[in-house]
Amino acid sequence: MVETKRKGRDEPKHNKMKKQKSSGSKTLSTKKKSKRNDARKGPRLPNSLRKEVERLNPSTQLNSEDEDINSDEGEFLTDDIYEYEEKIPQEESRKNRRFDPVENFEYELPEDFEDENVPSDDDEDEDDDLMDNGGNKLEDSHDEIEEDDDGRHVRMLEGITGMPSEAFEGNKKKNNVVISEAYPESEYNPTRDVLDGGGRISMEDLLGTLQKKPGFGKLRKIMDQMKKSEAIEAPLPTVIREKMERQAAYKISKKDMAKWEPLVKRNREAPTIYFDEDTDLGFSTVGAIASEFEPRTEFEKKMASLVYDDDVMEAHKKDGSRLLELNQVSMEDEKERHNRIAKMRSLLFRHEMKAKHIKKIKSKTYHRLLKKDRLKTAAALTEMDPEAAKEQAMKQEFKRAEERMTLKHKNTSKWATRILQRGLQVQDEGTRAAITEQLQQHALLTRKMNSMKDGSSSSSSSDDTSDEDDVDEDSSVLKEGRASKLLGKATEKTLKILEEEEDEVPDSGIFSLPFMERGLKKRKEAAEDEAKLALQEYEVSMKQLDDPSGAENSKIKASSGRRVFGAANIRAPESRDVIKTDNFYANSDSDDDLEAKENIFDMGKDGSCDMQKDVHVDSVLPHEFPQDSVFKSFDDIVRDPGPKTTYDVAIFASDKWRKMESRNKVDANSKKSPVAVEPEYNQDLQEPVKEVGENSDTESEGQMVDGIISLDPKPTYELPSQTELIRQAFAGDDVEEDFENDKQEILNEENPEPEKPVLLPGWGQWTRVQKKKGLPSWMLKEHENAKRKREEALKKRKDAHLKHVIISEKLDKKAEKLLTKTLPYPFTSKEVFEQSIRMPIGPEFNPATAVGALNRPAVVKKPGVIIKPIEFKEVNPHENKEGHKWSGQKQKTKKSKSDGSMPRKKMKKAEGKTKKVN
Amino acid sequence: MSVKATKEEKEKETEEEKLPEDLDLKVKKYLRGGAANFDDLKDKKLKGQLSHREFLYGASAKAAAKYEKWLMPSEGGYLEADGPVEKTWRIKQEDIRREVDISSSRNQHDVILPEFSPYTLDFTSNGQYMAAAGRKGHLAIVDVKNMIPRREIQVGETVRDVVFLQDQSFFAAAQKKYTYIYGQEGIEAHCLKDQGAVLKLQFLKNHFLLASINKFGQLHYEDVSMGAMIGNIRTGLGRTDVMQVNPYNAVVALGHSGGTVTMWKPTSSAPLVKMLCHHGPVSALAFHPNGRLMATAGKERKIKLWDLRKFEVLQTLPGHAKTLDFSQKGLLACGTGSFVQVLSDFSGTQNYSRYMNHSMVKGYKISNLLFRPYEDVLGIGHSMGWSSILIPGSGEPNFDSWVANPFETRKQRGEKEVHLLLDKLPPETIMLDPTKIGTVKTARKKEKSTKKEIEAEMEATVEAVKEGINMKKKTKGRSKPSKKLKKRQEIIAKAKRPFLEQQMHDGQLTIKKQKISEEVALPKSLQRFARKKAAT
């Protein structure tokens, strides 16, 4: 029974309540309380039930000064098991006074009435209860009675002192009532001692339930500690508290994050990361894409319906016979179609023929007329047809707007700005012209069109001018006249230039210097010559034009005409050139060459005898001319010997040749001077040439006749030639000393020797003493320092210890770009960097199995693969996945010990790796 | 996201336990020097990356060493004496002929063409073709593999040297006045006029440069792919026809009459190295294919072997050589008179000793010796034509078709040409140590900073001085603004002075230098006429 748990101390409350109800004594203050009572939460329970509940949840407060309040409060406090609120019945809330306001339904006791018989009531009740409980708990009841007495005593004390009842409770003893419990302990059914200990749930109570759980000991320890520090500190300020909370939270989250560490570390250390290599990107063939096609638009649907027509599909599935049936066309239709196509074809053909014909017309006049016609029709159209005119105007307007917008021709281009930046005056004629042209075009384009006519007229006028030019050029009828005109013009111009040249002779500045004058004169002369030549040529061609003779004749004339200007030295190189080109492009069949060839042959045939000779000489001459140039260059070289060092031997030797060769040259020249000689001259000329070759090559050659060498079959021992002998004789002349001097010179050049300290004569030498002292000490010291510095620099050279070697320390600026200026970023040591680039990684230097791994990028990813965020995976942080950490270094040390076992192990792993790679 | 797991690794490991010892050596070769010590590295990330790189390099070297077995299957043979009595140099060509197969024996032949001799020879880099140039104007291209003369032309003038360009499709001939480039069919393609009368030609294959030395001791570099003159250097050391390219770094070496050997690159006018090798004139010069060894022959009857890393003599041999050549395997052939001697160092100690001898018919004068690449054949150009003899162990037995393919087809040749052009190296890359490319520039000791730098420095100091000025408050009119300004200017001028002085000094120096050089420029013959300097 639940009631067994009830304590005697609670009895008075109930009784009092009952009494209250029965007595109905309520003051104003109590009314308020009752109101509060009304506002309690929870469902409206029938009275009897409520009583039961009240009994189950006894008040924890012992404060019973004002008893009815106390009871109320007790009820209120213990009610918190209900979670929801039920509205107060309208009658009770008296909201809108719909119900009759009844103040009190019960009988009220008069104000002065004092209830004195309470205890007796209680006793009776208690007795009843005791009777209910059965006789086995008599002792308990006795205690209770005693306790009740205590309570009364307390109340009395309270009344006297005016202090709260708690103050007097210290002496109260715990009652050691043993009550067997019918229900297990829970928060609904608290243990006796809970009820007992002032109605409060202590820590021990709570702990008691945890006794068998793990971690209980720890908890208890903490509890003990807490008990020791009795004084509870005041709560911290919010800022600090929040900070601490944050710190704690950080710790937790840090711990949480730490689990990612091995994963991230592994990824960071991995030389290559692969992203979802297993993802199947699906097919990307046209067929695959097409198969997934779904018709969406009207048209597509229509098409699909036709294509996927049941009939057609079926026909396709079966043989093609049904398809043919479906394809049936009527005879008439086919005929009509046939006719139509034939007609079109014939039309097309005719059009084609016409176009071909038109295209073949080469007449420029025709094309010009055609163009004119076209323009005219266009103009007419613009005049006649307002639509077309409008269109034209629109086009023009559009162009203008575009030009105004882009300013394409307004020197805004990169090229133009650059030109302008550098200054227009500096530029050459062509560039300036181009710039002005551009500007003009801009002006033309941006000019405002007042009317359509304006634009068209301007364009037509320009066309007209060009047309005129065309006329000039194309009138084949007036060809000769035109040519003569042209020639006349040309002669005029050249004459003018000749005159001008004579006019301008600068008489000041650099050009007035004697050698410049000479140079100018020479050049002028050359120019005049040329001009005269040109003039003569013009004349000749004029004449040629004048008399209408046959082509051959003219050719002859031309050749003979050439003879007029007679200067063999001019003609010779020309013809030589021609011959040369012939030889060069003998196999090429360009027309020009052939013509030139013909020309020469003509000359040979038609020309007179001496002409032929000339040609012969010319053909020989090429051997001679370059020879001269070679001599010249040789002379030049002899004139300015090699840098600084003089080499007796070489120069001496070369001097010799020079002399000999120059003698030869003179010979050759003397023989060359008579131009008109017999063909035998050819051989004469050949010989000295050969001699020269002999001399220079220092070895005998066979006799050459016309490019083929005549040979003497017997190999004979010959004495070495003069030059060879001289070279050998003077070669080993104290080479060692020469070399040393050389080296010293180079050293001095790179590290110049410090100057000896010198005093200006007369300075600091006033007295004998000064003279005796010599140079001031600081000068000497400086000199000494410089000397030492030089010595050190020399010692640092690579060839410092090699007497017979000079290694250039000069910097090669061009090769500089092949070196790095600074160490690349992660490297801090030069040695490590240089070692790291020692291995080539290309496919030429590595086996195919290793190339892939050597050149693999840091991230391998297929195009189209989405990179997903990292997922958590358990990774053993201690596992050394790479297995080769710092292996390079180890390998080295092991190798140096010539152990051989360790590196081999490494290698094994390496091998495995490569296998994997592939 | 996933980092590829290495599953097979473990399985492999067990397999790899038994590694042949000799592989280690090969691996070392392919590692090209090994990694640096990472201990000093502070940067962990870099350390990790580098170690990974090293690991990959190791794997690559390992694989390469393993594949060597397949890619380089054959080892070159050589003559071996049976006992202490038998000497390899006593073995005659006839003895060899008896032993070898027919195709090899075909490589022993003499072509007698006395009319145009003496001959100089050149082989294409794959050894398929030979160009022979008779002094008296005979140029011939011979398919030496099939012994078919491909093309013969008569140029009708002296031909001093012939050299193949990138392959057999072009060859250059140094003729009397100019150098000409001919096509495969013997059609003249170019005439290189500005090189003058060239004595010796060399082609730098990787750079597409045709190097030539002319009669006046001018060294020219002509880019044959573009036709541009890359370098025109006056050696100033007189006439010479001793020129050889170092195949390792494409540095051209010239031997001079003064006993010096100079090494050149196109981008610098001064020789990279000038070394005094002989007391007499240098008569011949050759480079080992690995570029570390140079052989020179002097007229004072000495042949010297040089270590080009230290520029020191390794070995001095007695004897005279008109021509020298190293084979691919490092045999050294010297020819003098009608006698050919081949030296070898099969022990690998670079201690060359007599290996084979060959004497031509008396009276034949050897002018040119050249080993044929990828064959055990030595071509001899002499005064009666050319010959070819067998020198066992001279040619590289394994070829890399990426480098040179002796069995090249026409299509391969075409592709090769394109590749060569694409991989053409700029002329700046020619340097003594090509491994230096890409490394950090060495900090030059700066004796002279540039004008700009000096100015910047001056400005900086002036600024610093300006900021540092704080005048004392003085009485009696000494703190007038005008005085203050004056003082200020004074301080600044004082700060500037050293820089200005320095500049002036430099200017004087340059003037002096010019004067000195002018004096030197006088030819020796005229120097005695020069006015004597006033004694100071």
TrEMBL record, chain A:
Annotated stretches, region: Disordered: 1-151, 448-484, 661-704, 739-760, 870-918
Subcellular localization, as worded in the UniProt entry: Nucleus, Nucleolus
Gene Ontology biological process terms, A to Z: rRNA processing
Coiled coil: 517-544
GO cellular component, one term: small-subunit processome
Record field: compositional bias (Acidic residues): 64-83, 103-131, 464-475
Compositional bias ranges of the Basic and acidic residues kind: 1-14, 84-101, 661-670, 870-885, 909-918
Record key words, sorted: Coiled coil, Nucleus, Phosphoprotein
Domain of life: Eukaryota
InterPro entries: SSU_processome_Utp14
Entry annotated with the keyword Transmembrane helix: no
Pfam families per record: Utp14 (PF04615)
Protein name in the entry: U3 small nucleolar RNA-associated protein 14
Source organism: Lithocarpus litseifolius
UniProtKB/TrEMBL annotation, chain B:
The keyword Nucleus is assigned to this record: yes
Single biological process term from Gene Ontology: maturation of SSU-rRNA from tricistronic rRNA transcript (SSU-rRNA, 5.8S rRNA, LSU-rRNA)
WD repeat residue intervals: 275-316
Any one Gene Ontology cellular component term annotated for this protein: small-subunit processome
Superkingdom of source: Eukaryota
Pfam family, one: BING4CT
Occurrences of domain BING4 C-terminal (ranges): 354-434
Keyword Repeat belongs to the record: yes
Primary location group: nucleus
Localisation: Nucleus, Nucleolus
InterPro entries assigned: BING4_C_dom (IPR012952), WD40/YVTN_repeat-like_dom_sf (IPR015943), WD40_repeat_dom_sf (IPR036322), WD40_rpt (IPR001680), WDR46/Utp7 (IPR040315)
Keywords (A to Z) from UniProt: Nucleus, Repeat, rRNA processing, WD repeat
Entry protein name: BING4 C-terminal domain-containing protein
